[in-house]
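Flagellar assembly protein H structure dump, as promised
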Amino acid sequence: MYKDGFEKGRSQGFKEGCKKGYEKAVNDLKNYMKKNKCCIKCHKHHNNNKSCY
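structure tokens r here:
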């Protein structure tokens, strides 16, 4: 659920110039990582391997 919401917000942010959707996705990501004590480096690593979700 989280990943879908983030990707949807992120793609909408770029495609439609919808800054609010993108900012919401970024904030959701930050909160998600704080909650799971996950840093940007490990998050990107997991994202590349699609193993985080």
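The first helix runs from residue 2 to 15.
lmk if u need the other ones
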